[in-house]
Fold these 2 entries.
Entry 1:
Amino acid sequence: MAIFQITRKIFFFLSFTYFWRGLVEAQILKQSCINEVCSAKRVTISNPPINLWDANVITAFNEFMVSLQDQNETKVVVFDSDNSDFWASSLDINLFTQRGIPGRNGTALIDTYFTNLDLLLSTPVIFIGEINGRAWGAGDEHLLRMDMRFAGPEAQFGAPEAAIGVIHVGGLQQLVKLIGSGRAAEYLLAAAQVSASEAARVGWVNSIHPTTNALRKHVNDIAARIALFPIETLRATKASIAEQAPPRAAFENDVARFNQLAALPQVAANVGTVLQVSKNESKAFEDNLNNNIVEKLYQVPN
Ligand SMILES: *[C@@H]1O[C@H](CO)[C@@H](O)[C@H](O)[C@H]1NC(C)=O
Ligand SMILES: *[C@@H]1O[C@H](CO)[C@@H](O)[C@H](O)[C@H]1NC(C)=O
Ligand SMILES: *[C@@H]1O[C@H](CO)[C@@H](O)[C@H](O)[C@H]1NC(C)=O
């Protein structure tokens, strides 16, 4: 009887832990179905106030990507945001400080971050980005590795990395393929902020839609239509397109370049200054992230 009660307590504890973890993840990545059989789903990023790509987002995103391996139910996933100002902001640069993220292993988190970027290309599911709001840094790196992107009028794109002293790993080479080397060089080297209409004009996104509702309808329609077709065909099409993607070695080279740059004293100093002047990644600073970094680090008026 006593053993039975202890076992019950352990089971209660375990199920409570799973319930709690599930709840935390459900809050960060909220899932819903687009079609009746749920072969097309929507995943809504929710990490207020700015959808900072922090340790919790990295972990939740990884668990979701892992859940898509070895399964035959999910054909299409749309990533959107419940924050009208941000699709997703940059990586939490506290990860690059001496202090790191209390209670978390920073090296392991960065490894997981890169694994997630890799999984977006290699997972046999069609990924669609639905963006209305800002997609800076980490947000844009994830978007650029999805199969397609659609924007609303408030979308903005930008890679702030050059201003800090690093590179837009995982997004850089994808952007070159999408918009050409000249334009990619311009936007990346200048850490530009790019509007939705300009992004649509150059091909950073597939198209721009005039309202949130029009964007949602377009994306739901295309996701549901793709999900009608045989899963083998979708996978073969994605695999064939991926053969034209930059090779995996190019991604690994960029990870090595990023790590070398991130180890430079100047980059560490820039990270410290940005954390200070941004008041630890405040919304007011991140709203205009690239321009604010340039203004504060280089004393150039914004
Ligand atoms: C998915 O389908 C493939 C082939 O159609 C099959 O070999 C595999 O076992 C299936 N996987 C699951 C998890 O059902
Ligand atoms: C942190 O993670 C790295 C990479 O996974 C691992 O090699 C290292 O041992 C971990 N450090 C601690 C303190 O757990
Ligand atoms: C900065 O904000 C993060 C949450 O985004 C928090 O975990 C961390 O403790 C803050 N750091 C400082 C120095 O206030």
Note: The radius of gyration is 20 Å.
Entry 2:
Amino acid sequence: MSSQRYFSTRSSAEPHLTFEQAIIQGLAPDGGLYIPTAIPSILEGALEKWSNLSFAELAYEIMSLYISTDEIPSQDLKSLCKKSYSTFRAADVTPITTLQKDSGLYLLELFHGPTYAFKDVALQFVGNLFEYFLQRKNAGKAEDAADRDTITVVGATSGDTGSAAIYGLRNKKDVSVFILYPTGRVSPIQEAQMTTVLDKNVHTISLKGTFDDCQDIVKSIFGDVEFNSKYHVGAVNSINWARILAQITYYYHSYFQLSKNLGSTDFKARFVVPTGNFGDILAGFYAKRMGLPVDGLVIATNANDILDRFVKSGSYSKSETAGAAPVVHATLSPAMDILVSSNFERFLWYLARENLASTNEEAGSILASWMSDLKTKGTFSVPEVVLEAAKREFTSERISDEETAATIKSVYQKITPKYILDPHSAVGVAASLRRIEEDSKAGVQDVKYVSLSTAHPAKFSDAVEDALGQEEGFSFESDVLPQEFKDFSTKEKKNLFVDAADIEKVKAVIIEELAKEKL
Ligand SMILES: *Cc1c(COP(=O)(O)O)cnc(C)c1O
């Protein structure tokens, strides 16, 4: 059906890649991100036809528009989807909850996967995809053959993303995963989520240093040509196209759930998304372009507000004030503490292509120059016509830590049965509530807000305890903590320690562990 190929946002001169090449490479050699040659439109009647599909079936329908059957035959893609979403605790995979029926506020719960965070939706699929591609390459080779294709995934985490990658890749054949994290700087729960995974192919490295040290080491490992060619280093970071693709499904799925819930399709669906690297909400943009009736996509940022500033000014700047040094603020929603939003480049490409360029090549060179300015000057500005186009797709709200905490509290107090938000989801709900109030003043009607809930509150105990500790009858232990997390303290753990931010030491550990895996 589909004959999709992929090319880089920074040039289209290179030959168009297959889906597999785009996924395995992750980042294009010119520094750009891979995008599909065309955004497919859903067929006439598809919305109705799809509305009763299960999550996995729906994922298959959507993904098959982006992956050529020459690459992954339908039956194989179907089983990949089925397998990927069978690990979720909720029957609906990503269920929708009514927060306030009167004001039309709904929560899309994306945290029912193995690590209790939204990244599972994509990484469960990516892990199976990696394994699928490798098994195909290795077909017919002996189990212990020296020429088997393998991938060594190396990543750094400040806490939240490492476990989703680990659970996506655990026990996958011919894949090894190494996750670096700064010693003593991830929460005990986050550390336990990673170190209690005992599979032979999973390795966590506690590194004496900061998160930046971990990231720098990972970057250097990627830049190490010799190491790379020997160990086939791979990444599963948020710019990987497969992650965006997998996230498109829940926009459709939640729209169908909401329509059924309301018994009508006569409403304006607005999605509000707690945003960091712009991967989650970008999937909403693709969903809309494909034909989902989306009335609005609202970016909700914390104090790290580069996107909010862009939408309001047309200037994409690392610093909040011209000339000042850029800073990442540590907020209550750490998974959104970013300086620049890596996936925003994909949306910028569409803006350039549709408003300034007449060919893909031209759009690629505009993008390359914007990104080069961002790198050298820390900023670039887009023309008015581009900003206007951006505003037609996205609006934004910036939420302070005070508002985040107050929202966790007010939702807990006002909603029956009691609902406990994690701080990331609270950023989205705070933005939604702000919009609902504005709509009500302006007399806008029939709007339904779907606020994306990206993590289970148990993952961010400090923020939740701070917000709710004083509430009568509240107990983190019994109201929030899942049994699985309570069991961590008695579980066997496995992890490695490197006593300095030293790339050679980390490489030595990786080499040693890879050798042990083969025994
Ligand atoms: C990663 C993450 C986000 C941000 O998602 P992006 O795709 O980076 O915008 C929000 N909340 C949680 C809990 C996350 O882990």
Note: The mean pLDDT is 95.
